[in-house]
């Protein structure tokens, strides 16, 4: 064999002397042929090569970067992925390090107050990776406390009488705030915290209500 040649697409034939790079994204046709010492050239062979050097795209919905969500809120979290070149090979996500599946309803009451991080990793069949991070904050308020009391009541985690007492204290606190009496609003919240600590028997519900009341009191005190 005297020479070996190749060409990319409809380009000019080039002598093959070393590995070469196929330029540009997309699908390329490579032809190759050999010529012997007698000048006879073989029928060209053909290869199809797909070049993908771009990471896939991804979009996260339900939780958004920089947003704050009340402690009583529930959000359905999902994501979409796309890679038109080689195709998506995998997409995995974690919420604060724990695995999370697309379509999961995240109840903020299961998360602590403060900052949280959703990390999505999408890999295409060529090995390109897209990392997307959503950071958000869980906050609380008197309306959140009222919604949480109602939720725990509906789940039979608070007895009806205690639920009514807690709701009444929260109503009093809201009325005090509307009238501009922050001191009285705090006093009702402190009584709410005391009653929740004494009368809510479910440990998780008790801890959340007490901690959230403490956070609201601290916010009102500035």
From TrEMBL:
A matching Pfam family: FIMAH
InterPro entries: FIMAH_dom (IPR054470), Ig-like_fold (IPR013783), Ig-like_OmpL47-like (IPR058094)
Domain FIMAH: 143-218
NCBIfam families in the cross-refs: barrel_OmpL47
Protein name as it appears in the record: OmpL47-type beta-barrel domain-containing protein
Originating organism: Actinokineospora soli
């Amino acid at each position: 064999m005297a020479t070996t040649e190749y060409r990319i697409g409809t380009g000019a034939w080039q002598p093959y002397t070393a590995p070469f790079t196929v330029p540009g994204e997309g699908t390329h046709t490579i032809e190759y042929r050999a010529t012997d010492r007698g000048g006879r050239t073989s029928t060209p062979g053909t290869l199809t090569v797909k070049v993908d050097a771009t990471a896939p795209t991804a979009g996260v919905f339900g939780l958004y970067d920089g947003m704050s969500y009340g402690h009583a809120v529930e959000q359905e979290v999902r994501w979409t992925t796309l890679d038109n070149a080689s195709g998506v090979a995998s997409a995995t996500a974690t919420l604060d390090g724990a695995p999370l599946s697309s379509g999961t309803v995240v109840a903020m009451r299961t998360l602590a107050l403060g900052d949280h991080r959703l990390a999505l990793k999408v890999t295409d069949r060529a090995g390109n990776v897209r990392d997307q991070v959503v950071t958000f904050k869980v906050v609380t308020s008197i309306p959140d406390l009222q919604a949480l009391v109602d939720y725990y009541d509906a789940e039979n985690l608070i007895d009806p009488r205690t639920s009514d007492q807690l709701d009444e204290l929260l109503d009093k606190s809201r009325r005090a705030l509307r009238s501009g009496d922050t001191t009285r609003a705090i006093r009702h919240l402190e009584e709410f915290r005391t009653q929740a600590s004494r009368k809510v028997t479910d440990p998780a519900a008790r801890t959340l209500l007490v901690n959230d009341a403490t956070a609201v009191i601290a916010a009102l005190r500035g």
